[in-house]
Design goal:
The complex is a heterodimer of chains A (104) and B (153). Chain A is built from four helices and no strands. With 104 residues, chain A is an all-alpha fold. In chain A, helix 1 packs antiparallel against helix 2 and helix 2 packs antiparallel against helix 3.
Chain lengths: 104, 153
């Protein structure tokens, strides 16, 4: 059982989801999975750098992850309220339409 | 054996969280991912990390459930049983490399630093700085939402 490979697989799943999903909430879930995969490595570090230090790093990484999640969720709510949809393709189309109307 | 089962559960729930069509079920699968991660930490003796993961997971998921219900379009599309089977199979296959192969060096240079020492003595400055950054982020989000509300939109 290898945590490095496990976190690599989870990161690959997250990146694949980030590239293929068009729903903003799914994109957020992908970001969460990538962050979880990154923090999973600290468990692997525990035997080599010591239990205390590993957990301390892990908790610091968690805090950053939570702050990032809060920012992404706030942006997600604002964008969805503004455009009325959470589909990235539709949001881009609306933005292009707004830009072309502004140019005229 | 328990670690292997947890790893399979973790990968399956991660795959389901991304590729299920219903947003609420996706969030439920993400909850399972966080739970399996917390159990993995617990199994490795990282108790504080497991509790922290669990607490952060509960907070994130409650907000995600609310925003998922609020923001997602109501679609009648449901995940078909064959697709569910494919997702489960993909999860099992993807978790096999972590169970079968190993790349990490097992040489243990264990240092006896306690959790409290590591958090407050070795990385105390990091903790304080990070608290400041998170406070600033929280204030920034509150200001953005407040300005938007007062901007008439």
């Amino acid at each position: 059982m290898d945590f490095v490979i496990l976190s690599l697989v989870m990161m690959a799943i997250g990146i694949y989801g980030l590239l293929t999903n068009r729903q903003l909430l799914k994109v957020f879930i992908s970001v969460e999975l990538i962050a979880t995969a990154a923090t999973l490595n600290f468990v692997m570090l525990v035997p080599s750098i010591g239990e205390g230090l590993g957990q301390a790093f892990l908790i610091l990484a968690f805090s950053t992850d939570t702050a990032v999640s809060a920012v992404v969720l706030a942006l997600l709510v604002i964008v969805t309220k503004r455009y009325g949809t959470s589909n990235i393709n539709e949001i881009l189309k609306m933005q292009e339409k707004q830009d072309s109307e502004a140019e005229k | 054996m328990i670690l292997e089962i947890l790893a399979i559960g973790l990968i399956i729930s991660a795959v389901l969280a991304l590729f299920l069509d219903e947003v609420v079920y996706s969030v439920a699968a993400l909850a399972a991912t966080f739970l399996f991660t917390a159990l993995l930490y617990l199994e490795n003796g990282a108790i504080y990390a497991a509790i922290f993961q669990f607490a952060v997971g509960v907070g994130t998921l409650s907000i995600l459930f609310l925003s998922g219900e609020m923001l997602s379009e109501k679609s009648t599309k449901k995940t078909s049983p064959p697709k569910m089977g494919i997702l489960l199979g993909a999860g099992v296959v993807l978790s096999l490399p972590a169970i079968l192969f190993s790349v990490s060096n097992s040489s243990a240079a264990y240092s006896n630093v306690s959790f409290g020492d590591a958090l407050w003595n070795l990385s105390g400055v990091d903790v304080v700085l990070q608290a400041l950054v998170i406070l600033t982020v929280a204030l920034g989000i509150a200001i953005i939402l407040y300005e938007r509300r007062n901007g008439g939109q």
